[in-house]
């Protein structure tokens, strides 16, 4: 490992710039170091060559380890709100207050719904709002036990914490201390 990279890795204050640099150089590394999004489901309309009266999209976010659901929702609001305003749409999202009360168009709207509304819905944690897995502890008796055992069995290995993207980690088994991940 180059000594300059090693110095940067040892200094947590340099991690954000390093992460940005590494993520910009390689899209796969970027997926590990940034929040990513994928539009998974899109639906709208019920016949060909007709504008749908209603359309929905489900967007999945894999949230950066140093971020949160609230920060991600805040970012989405910051991006979508000006776009909705430029299209003369009302943007309804958690925490927004619609004023004046929305006018209804009964031909396309269901009871109590507006036609010209972009609505952001955030599911409950059990549905989709799970926070990123906590970072694995790299100090303390539990980590030293795992690291020491690993180094004994594999003398040339470097023991470092790791995390998986794409699926939230389950809570550690009761026999492991909190924040002690299963992969080193």
Proportion of strand residues: 5-15%
Unreliable runs, pLDDT <50, ≥5 residues?
99-109, 179-184
Coarse shape: elongated
Q: How many domains, in number, for the residues?
A: 3
Average pLDDT figure: 74
Radius of gyration (CA) equals 23 Å
Give the strand order of the largest sheet, numbering strands 1, 2, ... along the chain.
1-2
Helicity level = 25-40%
Structural class: alpha+beta
**How many strands?**
4
State the helix count. 5
Largest sheet: 2 strands, antiparallel
Distance between the termini: 19 Å
Order of helices and strands: HHHEEHEEH
Essential attributes:
elongated; two-stranded antiparallel sheet; 184 residues; alpha+beta; 3 domains; 31% helix; 4 strands; disordered C terminus
Give the structure's gist in a few sentences.
With 184 residues, the protein is of the alpha+beta class. It has three domains: 1-34, no CATH class; 35-132, no CATH class; 133-184, no CATH class. Helix content is 31%, strand content 12%.
How would you explain this protein's 3D organization?
The protein is of the alpha+beta class and about 180 residues long. It has three domains: about 35 residues, no CATH class; about 100 residues, no CATH class; about 50 residues, no CATH class. The chain has five helices and four strands, in the order H-H-H-E-E-H-E-E-H. Helix 2 runs antiparallel to helix 3. The C terminus is likely disordered.
